[in-house]
Prior knowledge:
The chain is an all-beta fold. It has one domain: Porin, CATH 2.40.160. The protein has no helices and 15 strands. The protein has strands spanning 48-59, 76-87, 90-102, 106-119, 128-139, 148-160, 171-176, 179-181, 191-192, 195-201, 206-215, 217-218, 229-238, 245-253, 261-270. Strands 1-2-3-4-5-6-7-10-11-13-14-15 form a 12-stranded antiparallel beta barrel. A hairpin with an 8-residue loop joins strand 5 (128-139) and strand 6 (148-160). The protein starts with 47 loop residues before the first strand and ends with a strand.
Amino acid sequence: MSRFRRRGTxxxxxxxxxxxxxxxxTTAFAQTDEIQVYDANIADQGKLNLMVHDNFTPDGRKTxxxxxxxxxxxxxxxVAEWAYGVADWFEQGLYLPLYSHSQNDGxxxxxxxxxxxxxxxxxxxxxxxxxxxxxxxxxxKQWDPRHYTSEVRPIIGWHLKPGDGARWKQVDIIVxxxxxxxxxxxxxxxxxxxxxxxxxxxxxxxxxxxEEYADYGPLRQIYSAxxxxxxxxxxxxxxxxxxxxxxxGVGFGLTGASDKVTLKLMLSRDLN
Length: 272
């Protein structure tokens, strides 16, 4: 069966690392390639899965996060995510290529990422589930001022049943308290960028939900409210056993450090 994971990184810098510009008083964030909340669902053992993420920002920030950075306004950003089920508790992932098309840089290749995801086996079968994901990024200069960055993403969630004998879990509550690092400044420089999802399962195939992505800044000095990235999303999921699973959504920024409107589309299927 195809696995369809809902993964969300923070909106303004959900995947890589978000950094304040040195010697400025405003906060800026890099562009996002993946907007998803991880739910501890992984590919079945021996299965290879491909998920394509595409995000378009019709109304976004018009200044670069750092000199030469991809500008998010009117930009299309995406990544191909390859995932292989190594065991019922471990999935190996590769994000390649990371790409974008923006008004200032045109079409660009932005790097790649390696992912190691460890979860409670068969998370869908449990009321309470958990996991942790480690990502290691190699970035191009227009994507991040640091060539190497990483993410640690704990996964905590609940599948709540509508009643005994139900064929599916009706309500999902999932929290990803993400921290990112650019390998400078020690533990206090870790960037806190949590993501949250609450979803209502209409059936075992369809779900609707709300997601929230934030970036509060480094632990040593949390950003002021106006400089934080905060975005809320309305999302829809369609799971498929044999064909293509779909997640689509629209996000709205709540602060000046957030893009005002972003659209996302994720397509996923097993390849073997």
